[in-house]
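Example (one chain per record):
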Amino acid sequence: MRKNLLFWILMAIMAAGVFACHNLQQFNNSWDAADKTLENSQAPGFILANLAGEDISLADFHGNVVLLNFWTTWCPYCKLDLPVMDSLYVKYKEKGFVVLAVNVTALEKTTGAVEKVIAENDYSFPVLLDKTGDVALKYEATAFPTSFIINQRGEIVYSKIGSFSAKEMEAIVKKLL
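Predicted structure:
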């Protein structure tokens, strides 16, 4: 009797595991589809304040290749992307490459956390503050990090939810410059 009960408990656990994996795969597929919905379209315009309080418009960078990255300070994968973005920015900014790191400040406790992360690591790329979360919503950035590459004509040519490797991003940027 006890062996029978143990067998059925194990079967129930395995069935739950199969169900969970199936649903997780469907969830991942929906994200894969979702992060591509804006590709090959004009990038939505916006104006956001930078850390110094100056208004910065996406239109200011028309004619450049732009890496637009939505991030938060509490996201561990976002923190992995920041040094990669900075090294690419330093390497290619003279060739018309711009990084706009949009902190979704609406999801932060304070803007002080943003300033601290940037200052402690001496990042040189522009950091913009999305205090209401409206710009993130325009770009359907509901998971972090979410990145977009915008070409010189203002079109989104690449998008990704999640972290990226330096090699992966550099190959895309070099191709567009």
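Caption: Strands lie at 47-50, 55-57, 65-71, 97-103, 127-129, 146-150, 156-161.
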